[in-house]
Amino acid sequence: MKLEVGYIHVNDIRIGTEAKFEDGTVYVDPKALEAVVLEDERITAVAFDVARPGESVRITPVKDVIEPRVKVDGPGGIFPGVISKVGTVGSGKTHVLKGAAVVTTGKIVGFQEGVIDMSGPGAKYSPFSETVNLVVMFTPREGLKQHEYEEAIRFAGLKLSLAIGEIGRGVTPDETIVYDAPTLMEGAKLFPDLPRVGYVQMLQSQGLLHDTYVYGVDMKKSLTTMITPTELFDGAIISGNCVSACDKNTTYHHLNNPVVCDLFEQHGKTLNFVGIIITNENVYLADKERSSDWTAKLVDFLDLDGVIVTQEGFGNPDTDLIMNCKKVEATGTPTVIVTDEYAGRDGTSQSLADADAAADAVVTAGNANELVTIPKLDKVIGTMDFIDKIAGGFDGNLQPDGSVLVELQVFTGATNELGFSKLSAR
Amino acid sequence: MEYFIITNNPTVKSELGGEVSVELSAGSFWDVLLAARDYVHRGHRLISHPLMGNIMPGDTPYRSLAIESKPHALDYESLTMIESAIEYVRARPARNTETPDDILSDYRLVDLNLLSNTISLINLN
Questions:
Q1: CB A68 within 8 A of CB A167
Q2: Which residue intervals of A47-133 are DSSP H helices?
Q3: Is A67 helix (H, G, I), strand (E, B) or coil?
Q4: In order along chain B (125 residues), what is the average pLDDT of each group of 10 residues?
Q5: pLDDT per residue over A379-402, tens digit each?
Q6: What span, in angstroms and rounded, lies between the C-alpha atoms of A299 and A301?
Q7: C-alpha A4, offset from chain centre
Q8: Which of A44, A181, B89, B122 has the smallest C-beta neighbourhood within 10 Å, fewest atoms?
C-alpha cells in the first residue's frame, strides 16, 4: 500500500464564525461543531476552548487526544468502521493538520487520567504541551451510565476531529511524505539483503476505559492479526483507553506511532519493514496464551529476523509482554521490548509484574512513579477536584500555595510505551 | 470448565452472583490475593490474571479473579503468577487513606465491568 501524507503546519486555532484555514491558523465554527456533537442525545451541552503552547494553562482530566486528518484521495475514510464507513484505508492521499489536536475532557470516573500542562515544568512531560489544542468539555445527559458516557465522548472526539480535519482538504500541504509499504513478496524481492523486521503492537483490551478498537472491532474479541502500517495513519486503530495517562496510547499516538514512523525511515536502507502484528492484552489467561502463541506463529511464518514489541499499560499486560517476548525468542527471532516502568519513587522496585531471561533487550520509556512538583497555573480547563485521586495523584498532594506533587503517571503521554516522548537518560 | 470468582467487590456478588459462583471476601485487595494463593497451593489454577485492570493496586481497593473449581496437581504457572502479583502489590502501598464513596463506586464499577468482560470471554471457550 502506498499512502501520501500531506502535513499542513498549524500555528494556531481560533474559535470564529467560519471554518477555514488561513496563514497557518485553523478557524473553527463552534456552532457547527456543537451541532456535530449534539447529534448524540447522550450529550446535552458542549463547550470549546483553546490551549496554546506556552500559556499558563492546565487541562485536566483528559479523555483522549486526536489529530485532525482528512482522506483526500483513495479508498475509505479516516476512522473506518467507527465514524467513516468500514473500508480498507492506508492508500491514496491523506492531509494532516499538523500541530493541532482535539483534546476531549469530561469526568467519566473520578480516578481517570490525566493532566496536560501547557507551560512550566510539567509541560515537558506531555507532547500535547506543544500542540495547539482545541479542548472540548462535555456535559452528559442526567443519569447517563459511565460506559455510555465513555462511548459518547469517544465518538464525539473522533467526529470533531473529522469535521476539523475537513478544513485541510483543499489546502496545499507544507510537507509531503510518501509511505510505501510493499507486499511480502515485493519487499523480499526489493530488499533481499536487508534484515526482515516486524513490529508487534500490543493493544489495551480489558474493558470499560481499557479498550482499543481496530476498524471498529473491540480488540479483546480479536485473534492476533496483521495490519499494514499505513492503515494506522488513517485511524484504523482508535483509543477507548482512559485510566493511566502516562502510558496509554491516545488516538493521536496511534495516528503518529513513532515506531512505525522510524521503521519507515529505515525501510529499504538498513532494514526491510515487513509489517505489523497487532495483539491484545486480555485478562483471561487462556487468551493471553492464545494471543502470544499466535504472535510467535506469525513472526515465524513471516521469516522475520528481528521484532520490536511495544506494550500498552502495566500490571497484567506485563505478562502478555513477557509471553510475546519469550515465545518470539523461542522461534529464534531476537526481540527488543519497549515498556515503561513502575519502579517506585526511588526507582528500586522491580519495574514489571513479570520477567524472563529472554527479555534481555529493553527500551524503557521512563519511571511512571517519579515524583515531580508542578506549580499552580493561571487557568485550569476542567477541574482540579480529582488531582489527588487520578492515577499518579495521592493524599495531600495539593499544596497550600496551589502547587501539586504528582507522579509522572498523571501526565498524558509522559512514559508512552511507543516511545512518543522526550524523556531520556542523557 | 467450572470456575468461581473470589472478590472483595460486593457489586460482583450482587450483579453476577446469580450466574456464577462468587466467594465474597470482607477483606482487602491483599486478602483476596492471599486467598487466591491458598487456592493455588491446594491445586486450583488461576483462570484470570490477578492484576486485572490498569489501575494501581494502591489506588483501587477492589480485586476480583477467576479460579478453576476443580483442583489438580500444583500448577507452577499459577503459583508463579500469584506470587509475582503479591510481590508487585507489596511494593505498591495505598496512596490514599480515604477514598470518597463516589470514587469507590467508580472503582467497583470498573472492576465489575472488567470481570464481566473476562467472564464473557471465558464462557466463549
A1: yes
A2: none
A3: coil
A4: 96 95 95 97 97 89 96 96 94 82 92 96 87
A5: 999 888 878 778 888 888 999 999
A6: 6
A7: 21
A8: A44
The closest alpha carbon to A199, from A67, A358, A324, belongs to A324
Residue A302, pLDDT above cutoff 80: yes
Say if residues A216 and A237 touch (Cβ distance below 8 Å): no
Under 8 Å between Cβ of A212 and A238? yes
How long a stretch of residues is chain B?
125
Residue with cell string 506485563: A318
Cβ separation B53–A354 shorter than 8 A:
no
Q: B3 - beta bridge partners?
A: B68
Q: Is the pLDDT of residue A113 over 80?
A: no
- Residue numbers of A between 281 and 300 with CB closer than 8 Å to B: 282-288
Please report, as a single letter, which amino acid is at residue B87. Answer: E
A242 flagged as catalytic = yes
Helix extents (H) in A40-84: none
Partners of residue B5 in chain A, C-beta under 8 Å: none
Q: What is the pLDDT of residue B98?
A: 82
What percentage of residues in chain B have a pLDDT greater than 70?
A: 100
Nearest in space to A281 (alpha carbons), one of A256, A255, A244 = A244
- pLDDT, tens digit, 9 for 90 and up, residues B20-32: 999 999 999 999 9
What DSSP string describes A129-177?
A: GSSEEEEEEEEEPTT--HHHHHHHHHHHHHHHHHHHHGGGTTSPPSEEE
Which of A111, A147, A283 comes nearest B55 by C-beta? A111
SS3 A188: helix
Q: Which three cell numbers stand for residue A291?
A: 494471543
Instruction: State phi, psi for A133 to the nearest 5 degrees.
Output: -110, 125
| Polymer length of chain A | 426
E strands, B1-125, where?
3-7, 21-24, 64-68
ipTM score assigned to the predicted complex: 0.95
Q: Treating both helix axes as pointing N-terminal to C-terminal, what angle do A285-301 and A316-330 enclose, rounded to 10 degrees?
A: 30
Task: Give the C-alpha separation, A299 to A179, whole Å.
Answer: 23
